[in-house]
Amino acid sequence: MPDYTAEVIQNGWPEAGTEALQDADTIVVYCDGGGRHLLNPHIDELAPLMKAGAGLVCIHYGVETLAGKPGDAFLDWIGGYFEANWSVNPHWVAKYEIFPDHPISRGVQPFEINDEWYFHMRFRDGMDGVTPILSAHPPEDTMRRPDGPHSGNPAVRKAVANGEIQHMAWAAQRDGGGRGFGFTGGHFHWNWADPNFRKVMLNAIVWTAHGEVPAAGVSTEDPTQEQLEANQDEPNPSIAKKEKKGKKIMRTVVDREVATKPKSDAKRLFLSDPVNKKTPGISVAIDVPLGDAKQLFLAVTDGGNGYSCDWADWAEPRLVGPAGEMKLTDLKWKHASSGFGQVRVGKNAGGGPLRIDGKAVPYGIGTHAPSVIGFDLPAGYDRFVARGGLDNGGTDQGSCGGSAEVRFAVYDKMPTLEVSGGGSREAREALDGLDVGGDLAASVFAAEPQLLSPSNIDIDHRGRVWVCEIVNYRKHKGKRPEGDRILILEDTDGDGMADTEKVFYQGDDIDSPHGVCVLGNKAIVSAGDKVFLLTDSDGDDKADQKEVLFSGISGSQHDHGIHAFTFGPDGKLYFNFGNAGGQLKDKDGKPIVDAAGNEVAARRKPYQEGMVFRCNLDGSELETLGWNFRNNWMVTVDSYGGIWQSDNDDDGNKAVRINYVMEYGNYGYKDEKTGAGWKADRTGMHTDVPLRHWHLNDPGVVPNLLQTGAGSPTGITVYEGDLLPMFTGHLLHCDAGPNVCRAYIVSDDKAGYTAKIREILTGSQDKWFRPSDVKVAPDGSLVIADWYDPGVGGHGMGDLDRGRLFRITPIKHDASYKVPTFDFDTAPGAVEALKNPNYAVRYMAWQSLHAMGTDANSELQKLAASKNPIYRARALWLLGKTDGQGKQTVAQAIEDSDPNVRMMGVRLARQLDLELEDFVAPLLRDPSPQVRRELAVALRESNSEKVPSMWAELATQHDGKDRWYLEALGVGSDLQADACFDAWIKAVGDDWNTPAGRDIIWRSRAPAATAYLVKILQDPELSEADQARYMRAFDFHEGPEKEAALLKLLGL
After folding, report:
1. Which of 220, 294, 549, 731 has a 20 to 30 Å separation from 366 between CA atoms?
2. What are the Cα distances from residue 477, in Å, to 60, 333, 480, 794?
3. Do residues 650 and 667 lie in contact, with contact meaning Cβ atoms separated by under 8 Å?
4. CA-only gyration radius of the chain, Å
5. pLDDT in tens, 962-990
6. pLDDT tens digits for 455-480?
7. Is 100 exposed, middle or buried (0-12, 13-18, 19+ CB in 10 A)?
8. End-to-end distance of the chain based on CA atoms, in angstroms?
9. Which domains does the chain have, with CATH numbers?
10. How far apart are CA 558 and CA 567, in angstroms?
11. pTM reported for the whole predicted model
């Protein structure tokens, strides 16, 4: 369609408002819906455009909005919408065989396709002006979920039972000539590769723009894999055109009874209609006979659109009866829970005054959904009277106040609340709401009551799963007086499910533990303001000794505090903390000065925000490896010494990222010089918020491996086993926000990396699935921990009674769990164990072989000659750490045919503090830019007089297009910026003004670079964007050279 142009506006409502939409013939909206729909706050602004005849197309979640004003607008503009508690969102294969005589149907052939096809939409009365385009009969299994805002209701069940046809796409005519189109598919972005699926949408866009749809419909070339994966919150698996499904092994949840908390027998005495800002007085009157009830439980749940600013008040609550009238606020509750903040008498959940509809509440109780407050009833009272209303603390919030909606309920006993998200909560049905990735099988390894709310796991050399089990988190602190626990779960009969549970340690000193790392008979536990080393001295699986490795860490009871430790191939420990961690102190509370001579504290000297560390097993020789992250939840390391982690954005900005941690890098969460946040204006800032978020326009910020959109990233590991070869050498990662455990298939990209996503286990139907960690077992299978909760983030915890572990095996595997037997006492046996994909097994092997010294050399050299570069690297690390073997081992490593092993050799040489001539000089012209990247990083630590000339030689190989290489050059030169820059200028002479040369000048912190910035900016052909880029570089300089350069630029 050559006469059409499309402008894409990302990340919400356009900054210019409706001005950006004035010339649009049609507007296509593909966004989050419900209470978060981007159009909800802009109905009045958009109405004139709709009245003027602009078209509107809403896709998938974009067809869901709120009943009331937004819903009425959608009925007018597109003819229908998804209404909570009326419409449903199952995944199913829809067969479309008959199409109406309508322009949108032109050229569309019968097709069937699996998607999250919403149906039972709320349409205009009598379908007035609405033409169904895609219609089908949903199968009965679309009704298998229990009733819920999105999963089922009596009306839709009746419609499906009666065989009523459902409409998944429709066209609508508006009074005045405007046109609209609703399309409920589009959850699986790779479905756009289907030509008929795509043609329906393209035809609709043309039709709503008042264009002429060709007789054969609008045709386009098949989208590429890259196009299908672009601009997604949840990128597609690597095979996009066909959705491959794995297998669910159900026997593990039926062969043996898995106990679950019994359902409450509470009787519901009252349930309100949804209360929202459209409700008169934004409240509902409550007058409930209590009969012979002995207890009173007040509950607040969301109204069906998720927990969004659902601040709620029980206003003027009182008991009435023969004994008179008593304010409920005069009684002490026996139970109180709030989804945000705290339950408070006389104040709202956030601690502010109680106000409903702008009016003060004389007395009452403030809370936030989901909430339960319980009382024992005194004698002489048989009625409960109150008002239930939305507190202004929620409704006044611009981001979500308009979508606040709750329901108030009264019970005679502690209830089990139904929470939006769909699906059964029973452990025996835990797999029902999950999708398993292609070629994989999933089974339940353990479930409540064997464990509750796992935040982190590890797997020891015996195949046992160690669990950080949390109950005492934030508002629930003290709920379990004995403290939180470190559990050991074991499958003793090899059937693939845990059958024994042991408590390794319990105490309030580890409340809310965020990490466990098992090292033989020891476990490192990260909790609160300390890192503990717990030792089992007598082999009874109970901790006998407790030592402190680190202390003084901020962020107790905070998700952004200290996280888990990981054992590296170099015999060292790797760990991190988020931006609440603040600082590290030793076991005695003394500040730690790291190997670079800097105090480890977030004070921009130079460190700030979240950080990554490496140290010896006893905590000594600590190094700070990277900084300026937000909440880097966990770090992992591969066999070559490559470091990887994820990092969370400021929630809601779709900027979750995966990082390769190039050592000594700044990762851009805050401004390097000022500490300002990403929202602060700065020269040349990105228009795209997810990129702006990490200061990626600034010189001195290491690029991201991958940005995955919105989320709450958690555990990460590297898979180096054989059982699941599709993952070998790649990253495995959990993201609790979008309910998914994924693999990142990493590939080289010049001096850095890029990655594609492959999903492993996804909570497509069960939105309580909150994967918190993934680990590799000794047999090569995976274990995924599931925190299992209705919400994520905001320091909330809505469920205290559940937690699961899932096991992932190949699809043809019998799901048995057979842990190999290891011989750590002999060199051949320990070398064999060193090949295992499990970190704890490799720790045992490493310690044994290291203790053997040169007696293990023969066996290790055999492994170092393996065809597998992963095995070679592991052997070389050990050989290099053997007394007297370091220099020759580095020489062996840097001559390896695999660049990953050569990089490993460079890293080993740095740890051994070898001379640059021993490992940098031979590799200065290495064909791999990744190897040269590691050389540049290595130069940072050296005081050799040869650093500038070596750096200049590396710098002359920059191609002007490789940000990874450029930042490595910056890392390597920053501490000797003047000398390195001068050496490079001497090397290139007058040929500095190239794309590569301008890059180096932009990144350099040498004062002399400012004069060259002036020369670049004086180029009359320099684009406006490049002018901003080079002007920004001045912000990272100071001193007289900068002042002189700026004066010259001004002609002064």
Report:
1. 294
2. 40, 17, 8, 16
3. no
4. 31
5. 999 999 999 999 999 999 999 999 999 99
6. 999 999 999 999 999 999 988 899 99
7. middle
8. 54
9. 17-223 (3.40.50.880), 268-411 (2.60.120), 427-667+702-810 (2.120.10.30), 869-1049 (1.25.10)
10. 24
11. 0.77
